[in-house]
Amino acid sequence: MNFGEIIRTEILSRPVKDEHCKRAFLAGMLRGSGTLYEKDGELGLDFKVRDEETLNLLSAYFSQLYGYDIREVSVSEDRLNKKDRFVVSMCGGGVSDILKDLGILKEDKNGYSVNFGLDGDATERDCCFRAFIRGLFVATGGCTVPNTGEENGTGYHLELVFFHSASASITAERLAAAGIRAKITRRRESYLLYIKSAEVIKDFIAFLPAPVSVLKFTDIMINRELTNNSNRQKNCDLGNVSRQVEAVAKYAEAIDKIERLKGLGTLKKELAETAAARKAYPEDTLSELAERLNITKSCLNHRLRKIAQISEEI
Ligand SMILES: [Zn+2]
Question: Cα of 105 to ligand 1 centre, how many Å?
Fold first, then answer.
C-alpha cells in the first residue's frame, strides 16, 4: 500500500504560512529533486515536480518570495504511474541569488559552490527544518505499509532520496537530533535515507507534522497487530489440538498392543483400569477421563506414559 501519497496529500493540503518556512520548504524540494548546471556562464537549475498541484504551489512560493515567475516547464510522462511529471527549468537572472538565499549555493572568494550541508539559515529554526523535511518528502519521499492480512508482504518502509551522500548524512544527523533515527544506503546513483521501524516512521510523520496521516498510520499498525495476534492464536490453538490428537492416538496404540500381546490383565490394577477407561471413552479429553477415574490429570498423564513405556518394552 502506497502510504507516501497520503502523507504528500496532507502536506500539500496544509499551506506553509511563514515566509521563513516557505523558504525552507522550497530548499527541501530543490535539494531533493534539483540539478544544477551552467549554460553560457550562467547558472541554471532543473528540478522535477510530481504533479500539477505541487507545481502550482512552488510557482506561488517563488513568486511571493522572490518575484520570480517560473516560465519553463516541460512535461514528461511517468509510465510507471501513468501520470505526468514536470521538469521546471530556472536559468539566468536572479537564480543564483535565490539558490544562495535557500542555502543551496554558497559564495566565497572563489565564487559559488554547492552547499550540501544544512548550515544555511533556511533550515536553522525548528519550524523551518520541519518545513524543509516536508519539501524533501513532497519531492522525493516514499512510504509503504504492509497490507492488512498479508502474510509475507513487504514491511514498513519510509524513504527520502538524495543525489549526494553528504546531504543524506547531514539530514540524517539533524533528524537523529530530533529523536528520529534513519539509516542510509546507496541505490544506483542516489542515496536513500530510510526507516523500517513502524514506530520511528510514525514519529517521522508526526515530526513533519502530518497529524491526519499519523492517525491513519496508527490505525494500520493496530490492525496489523490484531491480525498478527489472531494468526498467532490460531496457529497456537491448532498446534495444541494436533498435539492432543497425536497423544491420544499414541496411547490408544499402546493399549491395543498390550491387549493383543499380553492382555490388559497383566498390568497393575491402576494401569489396567486406566487402559480400560481410555478404550471405553476414546472421546474424553484428559481432564474428563481423569475425572471419571477420580484422579488428577497429572496422575492420569503419569499412568498413560507408564502404559506407553510398557508397550514399547514388549
Ligand atoms: Zn520557519
Answer: 19
Query: Which residues in 50-173 belong to E strands, given as ranges?
Result: 72-78, 83-91, 105-108, 111-114, 142-144, 157-162
166 C-alpha to ligand 1 centroid (Å)? 23
pLDDT tens for each residue of 29-59: 888 888 888 878 788 888 888 888 888 998 9
Distance 150 CA to ligand 1 centre (A): 41
The C-alpha R_g of the chain, in whole angstroms, comes to 34
Distance 20 CA to ligand 1 centre (A): 5
Contact assessment for residue 43 and residue 99, using Cβ atoms and an 8 Å cutoff: yes
In this model, does residue 302 exceed pLDDT 80?
A: yes
Percentage of the residues of the chain whose pLDDT score is greater than 70? 92
For residue 95, how far is its CA from the centre of ligand 1 (angstroms)?
A: 22
How far is the C-alpha of 254 from the C-alpha of 3, rounded, in Å?
58
What does the DSSP 8-state code read for residue 1? Answer: -
Query: Which CATH number describes the domain made up of 4-209?
Result: 3.10.28.10
**pLDDT per residue as tens digits for the range 70-114:** 888 888 776 666 667 788 888 877 888 888 888 888 877 777 777
